[in-house]
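Here is the promised in-class demo. Please do not try to memorize the tokens; focus on the logic of going from shape to residues.
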């Protein structure tokens, strides 16, 4: 059985260490896996508009590199790496894979330390922090700190679990939690893994995920760090990036058209760019929630009431699913969201809305089979994962 968070103070790192979890292990020693991993990383940099030859001989500082599979790809295209990873359990594998690929010479230093303890004043061409920054209590301060670690013209890449893009995954957690409640088993038990398997295995197979089902279950479904507090949003992040005197450069998924269809001589100020990005964010809200591409080029911007209703739903799911005393019976599908989705006149969104409404009704029955069968019948919903993982790349001005 996985240990659930012992106290609100337990960090993501402690969760991994207590349970000996390597959250992102990718068996890159297998040639096919390596090829698949390489192609996915290349595609990420394509999304982020960073040409691959940018990395050659560049100094790159990566925080939270885990066992180094992503850093390994950067080494393979010529980057010089300084690696920070506070979990000592994963360092032996990190060293092993670099030796296996004969890329040890691309590592300048490895530190078994976290980002908070970084105090060097060296500047880097690129700083990377994927998969953990959003879970830190001092995340704003750490993001500002990253901005200060860059040379002029340098780039930083961060990833985070998006507050709104995580809605559909949170609903998956709610479903699993309800089944565990009916069977009277813990969310982190082996029985829960079996129930998750019955519910989601087929859907998960359709995803181009790099990790195993069990690893996804451990890191997303039963990891109480996948919760409202840990989610972050573009609007919060762009404020910090601006405070760090840096500029938004690109994102994955890409959703901004800010520099498209414009004459390069019409230069926006940083404030105008921020305003424009925030407006575009509103127009892409439905995409963040559902993963569906905007139809006809534009979506309907949500009101603050709709945004708050989504936040409240996610908050309720996280507060009630990760504690034994939680009351998931009171969690309802928000009417504001329902009205918003129906207003879109987009058939895919309207169908999703119907599916979600019916699912929330079924969740309150007391029979696991009924819930599983009903979920399995909702083919449109099962194909959708929202857009929980977001990347942002930002640059320091020259
Ligand atoms: C979800 S994993 C992501 C691993 C890898 N960066 C990736 O994206 O595949 C999060 C990693 O961040 C590390 N981590 C957690 N807290 C950290 C902190 N405060 N500073 C640096 N790394 C941290 C964890 O040990 C783990 O290796």
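The designed amino acids, position by position:
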């Amino acid at each position: 059985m996985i240990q659930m968070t012992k106290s609100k103070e337990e960090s993501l790192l402690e969760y991994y260490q207590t349970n000996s979890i390597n959250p992102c292990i990718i068996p890159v020693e297998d040639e096919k896996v390596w090829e698949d991993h390489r192609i996915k990383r290349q595609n990420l940099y394509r999304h982020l508009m960073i040409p691959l030859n940018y990395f050659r001989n560049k100094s790159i500082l990566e925080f939270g590199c885990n066992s180094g599979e992503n850093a390994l790809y950067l080494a393979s295209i010529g980057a010089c790496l300084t690696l920070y990873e506070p979990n000592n359990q994963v360092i032996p594998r990190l060293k092993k894979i670099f030796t296996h690929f004969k890329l040890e010479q691309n590592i300048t230093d490895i530190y078994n330390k976290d980002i908070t303890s970084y105090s060097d004043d060296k500047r880097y061409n690129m700083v990377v922090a994927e998969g953990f920054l959003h879970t830190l209590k001092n995340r704003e301060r750490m993001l500002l700190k990253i901005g200060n670690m860059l040379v002029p013209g340098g780039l930083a890449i961060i990833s985070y679990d998006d507050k709104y893009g995580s809605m559909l995954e949170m609903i998956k957690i709610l479903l699993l939690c309800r089944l565990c409640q009916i069977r009277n088993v813990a969310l982190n038990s082996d029985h829960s893994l079996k129930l998750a398997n019955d519910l989601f295995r087929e859907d998960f197979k359709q995803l181009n995920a790099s990790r195993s089902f069990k690893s996804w279950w451990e890191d997303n479904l039963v990891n109480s760090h996948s919760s409202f507090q840990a989610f972050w949003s573009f609007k919060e992040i762009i404020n910090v990036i601006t405070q760090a005197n840096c500029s938004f450069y690109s994102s994955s998924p890409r959703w901004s058209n800010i520099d498209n269809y414009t004459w390069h001589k019409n230069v926006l100020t940083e404030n105008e760019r921020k305003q424009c990005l925030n407006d575009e964010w509103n127009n892409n809200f439905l995409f963040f929630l559902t993963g569906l591409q905007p139809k006809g080029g534009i979506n309907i911007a949500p009101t603050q009431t709709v945004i708050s209703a989504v936040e409240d739903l996610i908050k309720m799911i996280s507060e009630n699913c990760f504690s034994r005393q939680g009351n998931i019976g009171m969690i309802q599908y928000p009417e504001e969201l329902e009205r918003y989705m129906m207003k879109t006149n987009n058939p895919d969104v309207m169908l999703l809305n119907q599916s979600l409404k019916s699912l929330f009704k079924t969740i309150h029955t007391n029979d696991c089979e009924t819930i599983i069968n009903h979920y399995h019948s909702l083919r449109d919903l099962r194909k959708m994962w929202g857009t929980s993982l977001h990347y942002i790349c930002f640059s320091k001005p020259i």
